[in-house]
Amino acid sequence: MKRFLLFFLTLSAALCSANEYKETLHGAWSQSFEMSEILYHEKTEHQDLIIFQNPIFGRVLALDGVIQLTELDEYIYHEMITHIPVLTHGNIHKVLVIGGGDGGTIRELIKHPGIMHITLAELDEGVIEFSKKYLPTLSNGAFNSPKLHIKIGDAAEFVKKTDEKFDLIICDSTDPIGPGSVLFQEEFYKNCQKCLNEQGIFVSQAGVPFVQYLHDDQEPYSKLKTAFKHVTFYQAAVPTYVGGPMVFTFASNVPMQYEMSYRTIKKRMQYFMGDCKYYNSKIHRASFILPEYLNKMLYKKDDK
Question: pLDDT (tens digit, 9 = 90+) per residue, 240-290?
């Protein structure tokens, strides 16, 4: 109860400063952003949304006291959460995106002409609407794609009840607190696996382990292994997500060839409708190579 109260007290403090936004994700350590202008602030049915201007990072989006993205470096996260699984698989046609209401993941997915159908399952319609208005560069018109089908509601319930099958599920969620906590549980992973085709892939953001995986129950590997035969991780350096490299989960019921040749990756990349600022064929291969502390932290005692 004390931690619950502390969270909301610190959240209130983060939002009441006239020119500073203090992130409250970590109780004993935080980062702060200068707010040169508050562009939008509203408490919706589900969460507290704010977007403000920062002199360095441009427009910054935060939910419930936690920074979600900035204009300056969002492309790193969105390119890595999409192109790694799409190009590893090589034959993705139908995708489910869970969360991702800002449109960045959709923007990257439609660069692949082979993807014909994208379902966006977003809890809060307000995220989509204000992202269109205040963060138009994130979606870059992607919300107008005829390939996109939006479902507003609880994504955990959607994967539990739907009979649809997908080649790829991208869980572009918030951190495992508040409404997003259900998206980091065994039941959710099992329901996602049920919704995948035989060669299907599940990916999700797994935070910054160096500062977030302080207790055994916070690591996702053991939970993912209840649903998928093959689970691994890859990394990217996103300046906004401080505390070390950000990690993404990569899970499937078939072994994937992570160490594809540069030639194979480049061949698949030639069909891109657009370009990348971070992702390339060498980053693709290197991202699966983790420092030893992450191997021990993520895989625990189990073999990779």
Answer: 998 889 999 999 999 887 778 888 888 888 888 888 999 999 999 999 999
Beta strands in the chain (DSSP E): 20-22, 32-34, 37-43, 48-54, 58-63, 66-70, 94-99, 117-122, 148-152, 166-172, 196-205, 230-236, 246-252
Which whole number is the average pLDDT over 146-170? 95
Say whether 167 is catalytic: no
With tokens 């014909």, the residue in question is 116
Residue 105 contacts residue 81 (beta carbons within 8 Å): yes
The 3-state DSSP class for residue 4 equals helix
Per the document, the length of the chain is 304
74-89 vs 262-269: helix crossing angle, rounded to 10: 110
Paired tokens of 99: 């969360």
Phi, psi of 121 (to 5 degrees): -105, 105
Query: In which region does residue 102 sit, left (phi positive, over 0), alpha (psi from -120 to 50) or beta (all else)?
Result: alpha
Report the half-sphere exposure of 177 (CA within 13 A, side-chain side).
17
Answer yes or no: are the C-beta atoms of 225 and 245 closer than 8 Å. Answer: no
pLDDT tens string 100-132 = 999 999 999 999 999 999 999 998 887 898 899
Mean residue pLDDT of the chain comes to 87
- Cα 88 to Cα 167: distance, rounded to the nearest angstrom: 12
Q: Which of 172, 217, 302, 303 is catalytic?
A: 172
Other CB atoms closer than 10 Å to residue 22's CB: what's the count? 16
According to DSSP, residue 151 is labeled E
- Res 123: pLDDT: 86
Query: For residue 221, which of 295, 122, 118 has the smallest C-alpha distance?
Result: 295
What is the three-class DSSP state of 120? strand
Is the torsion defined by CA of 200, 125, 57, 183 positive or negative?
negative
- Under the banding of pLDDT at 50, 70 and 90, the label for residue 180 is low
